[in-house]
Amino acid sequence: MSYIDLHMHSYCSDDGEFKPKELVDLCLKNKIKYFSIADHNSIQGIEEAKDYCIGKDIEIIPAIELDCTIDKVNLHILGYGIDYYKKIFHQIEESIIEQEQTASKKRMKLIRELGIDFSDEVIDSLSRNGVVNGEMIAEAAMEFDKKHKNPLLMEYYENGSRSDNPYVNFYWDYCAQGKSAYAEVKFIDLKEAIKIIEESGGIPVLAHPGNNVKEDINLLKDIISCGIKGIEIYSSYHSKEQVTFYKEFALKNKLLLTCGSDFHGKTKPSISIGGTDCENKEEIIISKLKEFINLY
Question: 3-class secondary structure for 207-245?
Answer without folding.
Answer: CCHHHHCCCCHHHHHHHHHCCCCEEEEEECCCCHHHHHH
